[in-house]
Amino acid sequence: MLSARDREILLELEAAYRNLKSLGLQGWCRPMDVGGVNSSDHSYRLTKLARLGFAEHKQRSPQMTRGSKYYRITEAGRLALQSEERDNG
């Protein structure tokens, strides 16, 4: 279901979420917080994961209609990672 690249970014998103939560924050991160740089595919992949329900997103600025989003992993994303981990043993 997930490509190797999707899984890699979802793992990065989970790690960032746990780190931010340990600091008492809500777990929202920017693409660059999970390894994204200019011309990388992180924003595309994170948007794809959000469409699949494995991540959620919100606009960083209310005036913006696209781009500049925060992302965090959802329970469905964590379950998908656990399921793949069990399947790959």
Describe what this molecule looks like in 3D.
The chain is mainly alpha-helical and 89 residues long. The protein has a single domain (4-88), classed as Arc Repressor Mutant, subunit A (Orthogonal Bundle), CATH 1.10.10.10. It is 48% helix and 11% strand. It contains three helices and two strands, in the order H-H-E-E-H. The protein has helices at 4-22, 42-51, 75-88, and strands at 55-59, 69-73. It has a two-stranded antiparallel ribbon. The longest helix has 19 residues, at 4-22. The radius of gyration is 13 Å and the shape is globular. It starts with a helix and ends with a helix. The mean pLDDT is 88.
How is this fold's topology laid out?
Elements: H1 4-22, H2 42-51, E1 55-59, E2 69-73, H3 75-88
Antiparallel strand pairs: 1-2
Helix pairs in contact: 1-2
Mass-distribution shape: globular
CATH superfamily: Winged helix-like DNA-binding domain superfamily/Winged helix DNA-binding domain
The third-level CATH topology is Arc Repressor Mutant, subunit A
What Rg do the Cα atoms give?
A: 13 Å
Unreliable runs: none
Q: What's the CATH C level?
A: Mainly Alpha
Measured between the Cα atoms of the first and last residue, the distance is 16 Å
Q: Major sheet, described briefly? A: 2 strands, antiparallel
The helix content is 40-55%
The total count of strands amounts to 2
